[in-house]
Amino acid sequence: MNELSYFIAANGVNDSGPVIIDQPLTCITLPSFPGLFSFFLAFGFCNWDSEKEHRLKIIGKDCTGGVFLDTGDLEIPQNIPNKSIDIKMNIQNLRLSIEGLYIFELYLNDECVNRINLYGCKELEA
């Protein structure tokens, strides 16, 4: 039960209806570090067990192991009518301090079910 079908970072995700990912991210580029970065995280589960409540959490860590994002536990109520769920999170003005690897970990009921690794680097000057 509760099989992760996708976990992706993107520049955009549609507001309603089926999830449509716009410009998936393979890296984070900023004019300079430290800097602010806005993006979306989207994830979905199939074979969802709606008989009980679940907890989701996303933790972001930089290349030094420092935590820069912790959503805390997000409660998903029981009796969701669908056997699959899609969740979109709009992350605005997240402060990133250094160039290097950024890791986003997705937790379901305190178990890490997947990670996204994005490298943060300075934009190339034209």
TrEMBL record:
Tree of life domain: Bacteria
Entry-linked InterPro entries: DUF6941
From the Swiss-Prot or TrEMBL record, give the protein name.
Uncharacterized protein
Annotated organism of origin: Ileibacterium valens
